Structure prediction request, 636 residues.
Amino acid sequence: MTEALLSVENLHTQFRTEGGLVQAVDDVSFNIQAGETFALVGESGCGKSVTALSIMGLIPNPPGEITSGSIQFGGVDLLKLSSTEMRSIRGSKIGMIFQEPMSSLNPVLTIESQLAEPLKIHTGLSASAANDRAQELIDMVGIPDSKTRLKQYPHELSGGQRQRIMIAMAMACAPRLLIADEATTALDVTIQAQILDLMQEVTEKSGAALLIITHNLGIVARYADRVAVMYAGKLREVGDASDIYAASQHPYTVGLLRSVPRLDSEKGTPLSPIGGEIPDLTNLPGGCAFNPRCQWAVDRCSVEEPELIEISQGKQVACFEHASVSLNV
Amino acid sequence: MTKTSDLGSEWQLTPPLSTRLRGMLGATGKAAKRDIVLGMSISLLFLGLFLAVFAPTLARTDYERTDPVNRMLPPSTDNWFGTDNWGRDVFDRTIVGTRLSFLVGFSVTLISTVVGVSIALIISYFRILDAVMMRFVDGFLAFPTILLALALISLIGPSIGNVIIALSVTATAGKIRLVRGAVLSLRESTYVEAARAVGVPVPRILMFHVLPNIVSIIIVQATFTLASAILAEASLSFLGAGVPEYVPSWGNIIATGQGYIQVGFHISFFPGLFLTVTVLAVVLIGDSIRDHLDPKLRGRLRTTAQQ
Prediction:
C-alpha cells in the first residue's frame, strides 16, 4: 500500500465539561489515500466533527485538548506543528466546509473579498490577481454571472449558492484534502445532491482527497469509496463502502442501515430504529459502549471492550460477535 | 508565515470600513428626511458645532470683561441672555461654553472609543488578560461616573485636559465591557471559524472579520458617550471640580447663577437650556441611528407607523 495522504493514529481528544471529562474521540485511527473519498459516519455527538476539528487544529482549548495520538499529513505530524505552521496548512493544504452555509460567510464582506482572502494569505497573489482568480472560482462552482456575484454580499445568495461559495473558498488554494463537515445537512435534498456532485467533481479534478462527515447513509452509499462508522468516540467498523452496505458486521452499522428506508424492501415493511438512546459520554456503559442497545450482546460485551481488528482485507470491525452479525437476521 | 507581514497596502479588503461608514451616513441622511425628530436633532447638533467653532467671532463683547454697573440685567436686545453678577454677557459666555462642552464631549468619545475598542478586541483573544482586565473594568464600573471623575480630578488637579482624561477613563471601562461581549459572541460564529479554517491570522480576523460587524454597536454607543460626557463635564464644573472657575463653561455659569436664582433666573436658565437641548439632541440621534441600523427594529417601526 502506498503512503497514505492522511494517517490518523490513536487520536484522543477530550473536553473538560461541568459534567466531567468527555472523551469525544477515543483511540481513533484511520488512513485516507490521496484522491479517495472517505466517509465518517455516526449519529450526533459521536465525535465525527471533533475528529475533523482535531485534524484542522481548531479544537477550542480550553475546554478541548488532544491528549495523545498523531495525525500524519503528507509526511508531517500536524499535532507537532506550531500554531503559525498549522495556520499555513489550513486553507492551503486542507480545506474545510462547514454545516451552516447561511452563517459561514461573513455578512458584512463581499463574496469577492472572502474568496480572495485565502489566496492572498497563502499564495501571495496581488489583490487584482486574487480577485480575477475569485471570479474563476465562482465559475468553477457553477454559479452564473460571476462578475456580479463578486460584488454581492452573502445575504443576496441562496443557501445552495453560499455552500458553493464555501466550496470555492475551500478549494481556492487547491488543497490536497477537503473536509466536508455535514456540508449538506442544512440544504434541501435536490440541492444536497448538486453540492455533493460538485464536491466530488472539484476534488476529482484537482486530485484531492475528500473526507465527508455525515450521518446520512444515502450520501455514503453514493459517494464514498471507504467508510468508517463511529459510535461514542470510537470507530466501530471501517471498510469499503460497498462492503459495509452489503455485508456489515457491526451491530451498530446494521442498526443504522435498518433504520433507513430502502427502495428494494417489501412494501409495508416497517423501519426498525435502534432502540435506547445515545449513552451519556461522561458516563459510558462498561465494556462495549453499544452493548445496552445491541441485540447480539453477550455477557462478555458489558465487561470487556472489543478492539478494532482486521477481519479481512481492508475491513476492520470492533465486535466480539462479528461473525454472527448480519443485516438479514 | 512571513507572508502576512509584508502584504502591506494590498491588504485592503473590499469594501473598506469607510465605504460602510459612508453607507451608514447615507442611510442616516435619508432617515433624517423622513424622520422629523432626527432631522431636528441633527440640525441642532450642527448649530451647536457652528457656535462652538465660531464662538470667538460671534461673541459681541469680551466675555471676561466685567461691567459692575450693568450687572444682573434681564435679557434685552443689548444683552440677549442678560448679564451676570459681574455684568458679563451671559450669551457670550454661554456660546464660549459650547466650545468647551463640545471639545470635552468629542475628545472623550474619540479617546474612549479608540482605546476601549482596541483593548476589547485584544483581550477577547487572550483569556488570562481578559480575566485580569475585566476585574479592573468591574472596579471602575462599580463607582458612579461622577464620583470616580471627582476622585481622579482631585488627584491630578482641575484643568480641561484632566477633565478629558478623567471622563475618558470611566467611559473606556464601559466601552471595553460592551465591545468585549459583542466580540466574544462573534468569535464563536461560524464565519469566524470558517475564516480560521482558511488560515486567516488572528489580528486580521479581529480587524476585518469581527470589527466591521460591531461598527453599528460602536457608533450607537459613541453617541451616548458623547451625551454623557457633555453632561458629566457640566456636572463637574458645577461642582467646582471641572475646568477652572474663570473658564466659561455651562456648568460654571449655572453654578454662578445658582446664588441669584431668585433675582436673576436667566443666568442659570440659558446655559441650562443649551445643555438640555444638546444632550437631548445627541441622545435622540443615537436612538434613531440604533433603530435604523437594527433591521428587526426597523421592520417593527414601519409596522407601527402604518397602524
Q: What stands out?
A: Chain B is about 75% helix and 0% strand. Residues 82-301 of chain B form a domain with the MetI-like fold fold (CATH 1.10.3720.10). Residues 1-14 of chain B have pLDDT under 50 and may be disordered. The two ends of chain B are 59 Å apart (CA to CA).
